[in-house]
């Protein structure tokens, strides 16, 4: 292990011209005097507002699985689910010690949110609204899933602006490798930007294209499956460039995969299953094959 780290350090330090995060002039928030408004908080807010706006817009189209009042309920409960689930998920998956220190657990402003925990919280919120409103849960998920990458895109960009969750040391000639203030002297992969591109922008383009230019929304579970599986694949790939949490480095070395990769495996499987089932089943509004065959026209 030591020779490997030495080789990595030697190659990384030989990088011709590393970029420095400090030279970008970025700040970790907006100083309002009494407190600092963190970019991460603004990223969550922007993602939720854009998701609400997009879902509300889609409800004007024929075949929508819910009414505007349901979207209003989703906005409230999903916000709670993302925040509570994200924080509790971070504690459960990455920092179990927080569970025994409730005072530290509530300090959201100090960072520490898990996407997987937020996803679970948001899913439970959608299940509650669907059950209470007697809605088709999977179709509700289809309409919400399309807009989730908004939050992922802004969230990962906020990670980069905050200079946190940086990548592994860059080996070889990586022109965009960057030295982060808390990441030591080695130039590293800006894995936050990789995640913003794949989990956010690319996934957003794919889902928006499917929703607005095809009849994918009439295949129950297809959009949800594309989102869940697509995110899982993107996150699994980027984890090869992302530095594992310090407290989980031994876990990653022992199991061969990071915690983030292990958590995405079920997502990839579930996403693939949803896509297959959606493509095999008859889309909503399509006439049964027997009825078509007996039509005299």
Automatic annotation (TrEMBL):
GO terms for biological process: lipoprotein biosynthetic process. Its main location: membrane. The chain crosses the membrane at residues 32-53, 74-93, 113-131, 143-161, 193-213, 220-238, 258-280. It is an enzyme of class 2 (transferase). A 1,2-diacyl-sn-glycero-3-phospho-(1'-sn-glycerol) binds at residue 156. Pathway: Protein modification; lipoprotein biosynthesis (diacylglyceryl transfer). It is found in: Cell membrane. One of its GO terms (cellular component) is plasma membrane. Keywords: Cell membrane, Lipoprotein, Membrane, Transferase, Transmembrane, Transmembrane helix. One of its GO terms (molecular function) is phosphatidylglycerol-prolipoprotein diacylglyceryl transferase activity. It is a multi-pass membrane protein. The keyword Transmembrane helix applies. Its EC number is 2.5.1.145. InterPro entries: Lgt. Catalyzes the transfer of the diacylglyceryl group from phosphatidylglycerol to the sulfhydryl group of the N-terminal cysteine of a prolipoprotein, the first step in the formation of mature lipoproteins. Belongs to the Lgt family. This is Phosphatidylglycerol--prolipoprotein diacylglyceryl transferase. The gene is lgt.
């Amino acid at each position: 292990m030591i020779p490997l780290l030495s080789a990595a350090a030697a190659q990384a330090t030989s990088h011709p011209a590393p970029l420095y995060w400090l030279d970008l002039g970025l700040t970790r928030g907006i100083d309002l005097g009494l407190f600092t408004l963190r970019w991460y908080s603004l990223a969550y807010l922007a993602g939720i507002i854009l998701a609400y706006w997009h879902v509300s817009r889609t409800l004007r189209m024929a075949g929508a699985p819910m009414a505007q009042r349901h979207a209003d309920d989703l906005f409230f409960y999903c916000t709670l689910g993302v925040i509570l689930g994200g924080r509790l998920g971070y504690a459960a998956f990455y920092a179990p010690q927080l569970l025994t220190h409730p005072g530290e657990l509530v300090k959201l402003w100090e960072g520490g949110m898990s996407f997987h925990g937020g996803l679970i919280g948001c899913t439970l919120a959608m299940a509650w609204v669907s059950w209470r409103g007697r809605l088709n849960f999977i179709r509700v998920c289809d309409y919400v899933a399309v807009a989730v990458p908004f939050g992922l895109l802004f969230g990962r960009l906020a990670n980069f602006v905050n200079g946190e969750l940086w990548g592994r040391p860059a080996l070889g000639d990586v022109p965009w490798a960057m030295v982060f203030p808390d990441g030591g002297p080695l130039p590293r992969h800006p894995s936050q930007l990789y995640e913003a591109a794949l989990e956010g922008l690319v996934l957003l383009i794919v889902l928006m294209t499917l929703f607005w230019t095809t009849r994918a929304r009439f295949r129950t579970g297809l959009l949800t499956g594309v989102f869940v599986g697509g995110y899982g694949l993107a996150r699994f790939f980027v984890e090869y460039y992302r530095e594992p949490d310090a407290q989980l480095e031994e876990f990653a070395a022992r199991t061969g995969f990071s915690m983030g990769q292990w958590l995405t495996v079920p997502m990839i499987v579930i996403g693939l299953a949803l896509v297959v089932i959606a493509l095999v089943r008859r889309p909503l509004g399509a006439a049964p094959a027997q009825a078509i065959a007996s039509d005299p026209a």
